[in-house]
Amino acid sequence: MVRLVDNLEAVGDAIRADEGRDPLYVGTTARQRPNATRFSEMRERLETSDDPHCLVFGTGWGLAGELLEQLDFVLEPVAGPSDYNHLSVRAAVAIILDRLRGNRKTP
Ligand code: SAM
Description:
This protein is mainly α and 107 residues long. 38% of the residues lie in helices and 9% in strands. It is built from four helices and three strands; from the N terminus they run αβαβαβα. It has helices at residues 8-19, 39-48, 65-70, 89-101; strands at residues 24-27, 53-56, 73-74. It has a three-stranded parallel beta sheet with strand order 2-1-3, with no helix packed on it. Helix 2 (39-48) links the parallel strand 1 (24-27) and strand 2 (53-56). The longest helix has 13 residues, at 89-101. It is globular and about 40 Å long. The relative contact order is 0.20. S-adenosylmethionine (SAM) binds at residues 28-31, 57-63, 77-78, 85-89, 92. The site of S-adenosylmethionine has 19 residues, from helix 4.
C-alpha cells in the first residue's frame, strides 16, 4: 500500500492515526556519522519492539543535516569495498530493507 503525503509531519500524522502513537524515526544517509545505529542493532530492535518505526530516505542531495539531528536514530551507511557509496535511493531502499527485515533463516 502506498499513500502520498506532503511532508514528514503528515507521515507522522498518518502513522499516529493507524497505530495510535507516534513512530520512531530512523534516518538513512550515505555519509558516516558519529553514533550511527548499526544495521544489526536496528534489526534486533525491529524484531523485539512493538513501537512503530518510520524509515526516512532522502532524494538527490540526501536528508538535510538539521533533519537528521532531529530523528530518533540514523543508520550507519551502506558501504562497499571502495570509498564511493552514494547509491540511488531505490538501491539503498532495497539493500536496507533486506538488512533490516530480510529472511535470514536457512531452509
Ligand atoms: N549525498 C546523499 C547522501 O549523503 O545521503 C546521497 C543521496 S542518495 C541519491 C538518496 C538517498 O538514498 C539518501 O538520502 C539515503 O536515504 C539513500 N542512500 C544513498 N546511498 C546510501 C548509502 N550508502 N547508505 C544509506 N543510504 C543511502
